[in-house]
Amino acid sequence: MPLEYQGSQTHSARMTDPAQARANLRAWILTKNDEADPRELSDQTPLLVAGWLRSIHLPELILMLERWRGEPVDVTDLGPGDFRDVETIVSRFVISAREPGTGS
Fold first, then answer.
1. Does domain 10-98 have CATH number 1.10.1200.10?
2. Are 32 and 57 in contact, with CB atoms under 8 Å apart?
3. How many H-runs (helices) and E-runs (strands) does the chain carry?
């Protein structure tokens, strides 16, 4: 059974556990695509290319990641592959925020 999206609770809580971040991110993604089969979403599924997310979702995603990190995302430092899949997002924005001097 997939994790249910917890709305603002998931949005606002500081997130330092990569496994929990992956689960919450997958749950959030499922709210953006009503017709998708949740069994097809893995941590390596290409989110934008496969249509799980659209560019209109990125500002909300960035704001959510900032809340999880407890610090801003430097949008001038973003690259085209930063939102490729769940694993990349968690590695780039959650795990790196836990390591001093590697935040984005």
1. yes
2. yes
3. 5, 0
